[in-house]
Amino acid sequence: MSRVSFAHASEAELARVFDFYRIIWEYEPRSFPIAWDGQGRPVEFFTPDFYLPEYDLYIELTVAKPARNTRKNRKVRLLRSHHPRVNVKLFTRRDVERVFSRSMRRAS
Question: Where are the domains of the chain?
């Protein structure tokens, strides 16, 4: 794993899982505009946590409280609406726990 300053420990854990499975990943490589002002200038952006180039997939990780998930769900919906060719998935706490438990069983 390259030296990256992750915003949350769960992102570092997911990066370790990607490394374990030899999945090439990039951390926050691109921001997408998701809202514009009256003159057409972008005023809000969404930056997914990971990009998996082999799968052409962006992943947004959320392990926060459900209220925060609502905000991230909104941003993912806007991203899909304005950038329909962008493949993005939102991973919740439960999704992450499943990935971690599977990788831990396989590593033993």
Answer: 49-108
- For 20-61, the pLDDT digits (tens) are 999 999 999 999 999 999 999 999 999 999 999 999 999 999
pTM of the model: 0.83
Rounded to 5 degrees, φ, ψ at 20 are -55, -40
Element (H, E) at 78: helix 66-82
pLDDT tens figures, 58-90: 999 988 777 667 888 899 999 999 999 999 999
Report how far apart, in Å, the C-alpha atoms of 12 and of each of 17, 35, 70, 79, 81 are.
9, 29, 23, 24, 29
Instruction: Answer positive or negative: Cα dihedral of 36, 41, 44, 48.
Output: positive
Between the CA of residue 11 and those of 34, 44, 49, 75, what are the distances in Å? 23, 23, 8, 18
